[in-house]
Amino acid sequence: LITALAGGVGAAKFLYGVVRLIQPEDLTVIVNTADDAEIYGLHVSPDVDTVMYTLAGLADEEKGWGVRGDTFNFLEAMDRYGHDTWFRIGDRDLATHVSRTTLLRRGRRLSEVTRTLCKSLGVKSKVLPMTDERVETKVSTDEGMMDFQHYFVERGFKPRVRSIVFEGVEGARPAPGVLEALKEAQTIVICPSNPVVSIGPILALEGIRDAIRGAPAWKVAVSPIVKGAPLRGPADKLLRALGMEASALSVAEIYRDFLNAFVIDEQDSELVPKIRAMGLEVISTNTIMKNLEDSVRLAKAVLGAKP
Ligand code: GDP
């Protein structure tokens, strides 16, 4: 049994490899929901959708979000009506958000709704939103406070970040099944996701860090930072906003209290002694995933390192 902590794209690419190596039923994914957004009154869960579409084999790997081959007739029509269209919702993707929102309005919890959506898409792994409650990443920038999707998508992570808060995280409980999945896992993997705004909110939920620390599993994380830079997104800027340097070392530092092993890219192999000195096993390998073979190769290197 493998339990993974996941953000969006980096995580999804890795997990796509994992389910080629194990029975998909043996994988549970705990996904960040702190960058969920309300768009046109619809509940959009970008990270959950990326993981769900990828595991269903529907993801648009070129763009990194949305459904492959999707069309944008709806968005064009919204544009004609004068709405903002910076958040790109394709026609098929729209059906996901409408379904989710409809079920939530009928009183179902996000975790139940996610299970229903996954079932319809034929996803056999368990995809769990980190919580059923509302936690919202807010970014304080030189252009003021903004929610994460405005900072990330609309403003293209250009504003200078001063600080980051996860509103509502105090008192928010992990979704049903989350703590159990951590307790029962043989391996817990922290996917190559943004450590600050994707994995950060999951770890900030009450009980999660302790549950990981106390779990009998072997615990491993894959660095999303290679050669001091993220492969996409603002992880470097956000690490610096927290006063840390943008490097795999900082990521190891954030997770070291609960990890057994840390996976870095072979281009960062000079960091091996420093990470070992933190008391972690280090696996240095090619962590860059451009296609399915890369994902499988990385998943093999990570899971195969378990003693
Ligand atoms: P987002 O929510 O869609 O931004 O996705 P994530 O939280 O998964 O974060 C994206 C992170 O994944 C970035 O920091 C990237 O550097 C990292 N990432 C994306 N692709 C890869 C890859 O092929 N290899 C590794 N090691 N990291 C990746």
Explain this structure:
The chain is an alpha/beta fold. The protein has helices spanning 9-21, 46-55, 73-80, 91-105, 110-121, 148-154, 178-184, 199-204, 208-214, 235-241, 248-255, 272-277, 292-303; strands spanning 2-6, 27-31, 37-39, 42-44, 126-129, 136-141, 144-147, 161-167, 187-190, 218-222, 225-226, 229-230, 261-265, 281-285. Strands 5-2-1-9-10-13-14 form a seven-stranded parallel β-sheet, with helices on both faces. A three-stranded antiparallel β-sheet has the order 7-6-8. The chain has a two-stranded antiparallel ribbon with strand order 3-4. Helix 1 crosses helix 13 and helix 7 runs parallel beside helix 9. The radius of gyration is 18 Å and the shape is globular. The structure holds guanosine-5'-diphosphate (GDP). Residues 7-11, 13, 47, 50, 192-194, 198, 222-224, 226, 230-233, 235, 287-289 line the site of guanosine-5'-diphosphate.
